[in-house]
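If your schedule permits, I should be very grateful for your opinion on a structural question. I have a record of one protein: its chain in single-letter code and its fold written as discrete structure tokens. Would you kindly read the sequence against the tokens and tell me how you understand this chain to fold? Thank you for your consideration; the sequence and its tokens are set out here.


***
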Amino acid sequence: MIKKTLKNTDSDPTTTNVKDVVIWGEGDMFKLISKASSELEGWMKSTKAMDTGTGCVVQVTTQQMNEDGSYSIAEALTFVPGVIIAEIRNNDTDEVTSRKLMTKDQLDKIIEIEKDNDGT
């Protein structure tokens, strides 16, 4: 068995890093919010969210490599009403650099402040 890839962040790198991956449906329905991992120590923690239109389903995952090379995995899901996934983008490349969960009101306030700072 090949060593598990812990560094994937969305379906594009996954299809590059995992040669035999098969994706059916919307591979990026859950958006990565945060992730930390150590290949050397064999662990990974991530938080992902899926927008439902009325809030987000949030999934947290912890993977830990056991001494025999197998993995133990713990996951939890919950619904957070009234939040959206806000994407922070690089101004030059438009690449998503991070994501946050926030209310639409919070996002609107940030957009208003940025417009005031830009003079638009």
